[in-house]
Amino acid sequence: MATAGRRPGPTRTKDAITAAARAQFAERGYTATTLRSVARAAGVHPALIHHHFGSKEQLYNAALSLPVDPIEVVTRLTQVPREEFPEQLVRHFIATWRDPQAGPILHALLRRAISEPDQTALLRSHAETVLVPRIAAALGIPEINAAAAFAQLIGLTIADTLIRIGPLTRATEDQLVALIAPVISRCLAIS
Is the pTM of this model over 0.90? Predict the structure, then answer.
């Protein structure tokens, strides 16, 4: 007589869930992807997603393999006074991308997103369905403004941490914030 429970040996359940989530978030975006649809695609019961990941946001972060929780960061930053938001956003972005632990992981993810179409779709989906709408809604601005700010930050990141353009890499965080925060303020229509 067989016993109930998990089969002996290594399990691939978490990997199957992550792969299914990555594919669905890339194809459908954050909002349209449901835990049930991910579970169905992975061939598991939805309760296993909660067991392994806890929530949709945590599953999303695992699918992206991000070392930081962008939803938590955006939520926290949109709580600061509106006029401080651009500077705080730039400061957080620079500090995270230059961080000795988080930075290399983010650099690898960005390199992969630039070179692999499925990863490009996942990053685009992340920007279009999570970051841009949340920032735009929190600030009461059009999404194009938030998207332009995001583009400026990605451009800075590529030039500073991937291409490593000398004057940028030698600049302090405060110097970069002083240069870029006004640009982000203008993009976000904050004066």
Answer: no
